[in-house]
Amino acid sequence: MERLRFSFFWRVTVAILFSVSLLRPQSASAALVKPFKLNGLCMFCDVLPSSCNATGTCSSECNITAICEHPEEVCVSVWHTDGENRTVETVCHNPSLPFRGVMLDDYNNTDCVMKQYKGLGPDYYMCSCTGEECNDKLTFTQSEILPRPEVREVPIILISLLPLLVLAVLIMSFLYFFRLHRQQHLKTGAKSKCPSHDFCDTRAIMNDVDHPESNSAHANSLNHNMELLPIQLDGVVGKGRFAEVYRAKLKQKPTSASGANVPFQTVAVKIFPCEEYASWKSEKEIFSDAELRHENILHFLTAEQRGGEGQYWLITAYHDKGNLQEYLRGHLLSWEQLHKLGGSLARGVAHLHSERTPCGRPKVAIAHRDLKSSNILVKDDLTCCLCDFGLSLRLDSSMSIDELANSGQVGTARYMAPEVLESRINLENIESFKQTDVYSMALVLWEITSRCTAIGEVKEYELPFGKLREHPCVDSMKDSVIRDRERPEIPSSWCKHLGIKAICATIDECWDQDPEARLTAHCVMERLNALQDLDHNQLSQSPEQKIQNV
Ligand code: ADE
Fold first, then answer.
1. Pseudo-torsion of CA 134, 140, 143, 144, nearest 10°?
2. Which fold would CATH assign to domain 37-144?
3. Nearest to 440 by CA among 457, 464, 467
4. Is a pLDDT exceeding 70 seen at residue 120?
5. Does residue 197 surpass a pLDDT of 80?
6. For residue 312, how far is its CA from the centre of ligand 1 (angstroms)?
7. What is the pTM of this model?
8. Residues 67, 7: contact at Cβ < 8 Å?
9. CATH for 202-317 (3.30.200.20, 3.40.50.150, 3.30.410.40, 3.40.50.2300)
10. Ligand 1 probe mutation, 214, 234, 236, 237, most atoms within 8 A of CB
11. Which pLDDT belongs to residue 507?
């Protein structure tokens, strides 16, 4: 019961003080024991059934008089009917606080004059007054019908509900956007079993604006609307650690006046299953740097999320000759071909490592970290282009030592530099990462050289450290490369050819045990460029032969 706050102690006190009147019929007690009026003395029965019909004057029919708990409290009566039952409620109340949501404004009267409060119910009357038992006699005048209390309460209710309203609006907006986002995700990834990823990434990132190797009519237009490219997969041409590479047909848009002379362009599609999202993302980020573009770096067209298939695609140029390892296995090379392949490889690595483009624009240096002959493609003109940047690292000067250290021991054990095998890279110097690439590049240069007819008798193709099993582990590579300081053999017979001799000297300086002693890729590139200027006779004759000729 609201306001039933007077204690048992008070009730007992009141009972003693008014022992006579408590047992009285109301009117008699008023006559007998009321020499003066006391404030704070009110009828207090809470709710009682009533015979009053809300006309004229009625008695509260309450037999309990209470001293209100607080001196500021006044007497209040409420008459109410629900149609069948009538009740009268008598209580004390502090008029500075709302009572049933309404401020009492007539409590200074000694009479309790009933007013109807429409908003509290169809038949709801209240009165308040000050004076001894003043809420016992209820006067119904029917003169005043007060506005609905809600009207007065509206500002209070609104203010108190405002934080709740704001919260509700926020929650509803959150739910709305969450649903919208989920619907979009379901549309693109209905079949994907993978957790949702950062879908702020564009669905398709085009990187193809006026690149000389690009002849796709789609590329530039799709750059704007982010639609998936119309691609038809043909067959698998390679399997990597994280993804499979397909040869595919990219349908060409008919070109204006001349018509569609080529219905499609052959492209390579590297497909990452959804579990390899992180590899796709990191390779995509490496490729997305426009300054990476170079004739000796695989040309990137676009990256796509193929939600329906739960896959992530990287679409690049396709090179029919396949990777360098396959090519060397199946072909012998002339000196010119060796020079072309080796020189282009060094140019590709030099560009990757460089902090400037050939035009002098700044670019972020990148370490490949998995250079090997199967990650290098052979282009139609028999030059190399680097591919598979899944383990590559942007050597941003903002990278902290922790970030560099966390990047871990990565790569393929066979091609790992001694300091990588030992996990002892100097993280204080980003050049260290380039030096590990130079070591791997030296092994690839050795592979190319080993297939060149200019070395004399050419053996069957062998990988570097080919005597080891197919996928040697880090420990067996440590035994060979660190403990035994082994390197692939360079027989002296190779060096009869001056060009080969120069290349082998360069290789030897690139696979030095001491990373600091290794040449830079840029230096290798310049040394190979210099060999271009030597004519055929100068290169193929040993010094002894040359002396004889003179
Ligand atoms: N193998 C891996 N990537 C390739 C590509 N882009 N072209 C041809 N073969 C590949």
1. 60
2. CD59 (2.10.60)
3. 464
4. yes
5. no
6. 16
7. 0.62
8. no
9. 3.30.200.20
10. 237
11. 98
